[in-house]
């Protein structure tokens, strides 16, 4: 299978040398990445850690938050507004309030603008699972909050950009038992969709979908009880371009055990279709982990599925009308072991990218990313194993406008358990090899056109198989883009360099090989 070379790998190890982990990340239109999660500290247990990296992987800023209770503080979700402000949300130990909702706003330079805490009615366990922003820059958080009378409820709060509460809604089901949020999404009109599970007497946990208006009015709810009347637990939610909501989770059925269950609802709450997927292994679990829709309304669901005594990646594509278009399974090289996808994303061409973990041969868990085209053909599969041959896990994946892939999660530390990690890969879609051309020397051609805006062609030749690095530097000598880093066969190559996100001025591009280093100058006019 084809291997992608990481453009860069960035890690952070908390002072406690414990289990540090990125739980959420997002990329902006310029290709910068913002990641948030938890780091283990010597004096304060888990603290919230937030970091920004630019396109070449330089750390722009980092922030650590330790709550008033000096206990566990964990960021579960991160979001951006249209002005480049960052919202980080999760759970934080209060001074005398147990675990609280926490929402922190940073500006684009990493300055903390404000933070807001919410303590539920019983001053017990409260945790934000997801934060989103609407088109007006208002952040909305949703999570679970414990109440002595009603147990766990779903609480959703909308704030204005200054941190004032606009509305606060609690959902408690008919049985006064546990309700848990799975996911949240917002449409272009500011309507908020919450997916989760709700306990119903005699039925166990059911799928739950709630829709709130922009003003916080509960417009409708929908639920689903699987054919066995047993526990049905929702995982994730996506919205299509027409305002329909699609949810997916695990649901028990007679004879097949735990299955994928995917349901599509209209914006008015009408169930449009229900699809269940069960593997050929009788009564074996199939558990979805993530769902996404593409620009055409197709739905992709991925999760862990047991077949032949092993957990595999399973990805299913449905049409907008619910037709199953294809399924794809991946069983890692170690055979009957554990492979689990955790996140997926799509690009404008209809390709889907699935990321998670897969047991390797002698390497424990590796980060694994798989790319399928729109018809289900596997384009490439990439395994990433860090130097210490221990667990490396991708929790989230995103793709930027240049086609760069970012995954975040954790990789095994050299002197710690696990380190907070962000890894960026390039698909090298702009690299073209002229196979009929013979190269007799290492050479770097002058880019064409020059001056340029926004794109230019950089050509180079290598006479033998070589490890090369092709990078672009600004006038201060700092790397702004790594275009190629890895082994190439002999030949003549051209690379289409896109200057998106860069300001005008003089830049240098350098070809480094084992034999020599060659540098040329180019001018970007904006």
Give your account of this protein's structure.
The chain has 526 residues and is an all-beta fold. Among the domains are: 20-172, TolB, C-terminal domain (Neuraminidase); 431-524, Sandwich (Immunoglobulin-like), CATH 2.60.40. Helices cover 0% and strands 60% of the residues. It is built from no helices and 40 strands. It has strands spanning 6-12, 21-27, 33-41, 45-53, 59-65, 73-80, 86-93, 99-106, 112-118, 126-133, 139-147, 151-159, 165-171, 179-186, 192-200, 204-212, 218-224, 232-239, 245-253, 257-265, 271-277, 286-293, 299-307, 310-318, 324-330, 339-346, 352-359, 365-372, 378-384, 392-399, 405-412, 418-425, 431-434, 443-444, 455-462, 466-473, 479-488, 491-498, 505-512, 517-524. The chain has a 4-stranded antiparallel sheet with strand order 1-32-31-30, with no helix packed on it. Strands 2-3-4-5 form a 4-stranded antiparallel sheet, with no helix packed on it. Strands 6-7-8-9 form a 4-stranded antiparallel sheet, with no helix packed on it. It is globular, with a radius of gyration of 24 Å.
């Amino acid at each position: 299978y084809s291997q992608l070379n990481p453009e860069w790998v960035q890690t952070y190890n908390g002072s406690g040398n414990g289990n540090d982990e990125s739980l959420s990340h997002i990329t902006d239109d310029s290709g910068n990445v913002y990641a948030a999660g938890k780091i283990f500290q010597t004096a304060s247990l888990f603290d919230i850690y937030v970091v920004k990296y630019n396109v070449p992987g330089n750390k722009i800023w980092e922030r650590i938050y330790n709550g008033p209770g000096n206990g566990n503080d964990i960021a579960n979700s991160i979001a951006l507004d249209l002005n480049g402000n960052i919202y980080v949300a999760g759970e934080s130990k209060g001074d005398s309030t147990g675990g609280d909702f926490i929402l922190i706003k940073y500006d684009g330079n990493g300055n903390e603008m404000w933070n807001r805490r919410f303590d539920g009615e019983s001053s017990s366990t409260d945790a934000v699972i997801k934060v989103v922003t609407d088109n007006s820059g208002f952040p909305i958080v949703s999570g679970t909050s414990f109440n002595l009378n009603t147990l766990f409820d779903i609480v959703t709060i909308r704030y204005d950009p200054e941190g004032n509460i606009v509305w606060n809604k609690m959902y408690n089901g008919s049985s006064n038992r546990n309700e848990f949020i799975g996911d949240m999404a917002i449409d272009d009109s500011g309507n908020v969709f919450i997916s989760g599970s709700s306990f119903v007497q005699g039925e166990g946990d059911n799928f739950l979908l709630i829709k709130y208006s922009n003003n916080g009015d509960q417009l409708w709810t929908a639920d689903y009880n699987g054919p066995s009347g047993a526990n049905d637990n929702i995982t994730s939610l996506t919205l299509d371009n027409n305002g329909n909501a699609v949810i997916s989770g695990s649901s028990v059925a007679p004879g097949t055990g735990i299955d994928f269950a995917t349901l599509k609802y209209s914006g008015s709450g009408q169930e449009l279709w229900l699809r269940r997927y069960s593997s050929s292994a009788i009564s074996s679990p199939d558990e979805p982990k993530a769902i996404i829709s593409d620009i055409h309304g197709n739905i992709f669901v991925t999760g862990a599925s047991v077949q032949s005594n092993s957990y595999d990646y399973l990805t299913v594509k449905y049409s907008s009308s619910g037709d199953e278009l294809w399924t794809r399974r991946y069983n890692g090289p170690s055979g009957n072991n554990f492979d689990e996808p955790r996140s997926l994303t799509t690009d404008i061409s209809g390709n889907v990218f699935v990321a998670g973990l897969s047991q390797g041969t002698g390497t424990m868990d590796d980060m694994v990313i798989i790319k399928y085209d729109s018809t289900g053909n596997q384009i490439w599969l990439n395994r990433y194993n860090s130097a210490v041959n221990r667990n490396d896990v991708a929790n989230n994946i995103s793709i930027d406008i240049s086609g760069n892939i970012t995954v975040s999660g954790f990789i095994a530390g050299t002197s710690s358990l696990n380190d907070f990690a962000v890894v960026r890969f390039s698909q090298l879609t702009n690299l073209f090899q002229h196979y009929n051309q013979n190269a007799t020397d290492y050479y770097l051609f002058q880019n064409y056109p020059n001056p340029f805006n926004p794109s230019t062609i950089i050509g180079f030749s290598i006479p033998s198989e070589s490890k090369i690095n092709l990078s672009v530097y600004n006038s201060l000598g700092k790397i702004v883009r790594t275009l190629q880093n890895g082994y190439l066969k002999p030949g003549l190559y051209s690379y289409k360099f896109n200057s998106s996100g860069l300001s005008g001025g003089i830049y240098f591009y350098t070809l480094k090989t084992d034999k020599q280093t060659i540098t040329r100058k180019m001018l970007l006019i904006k």
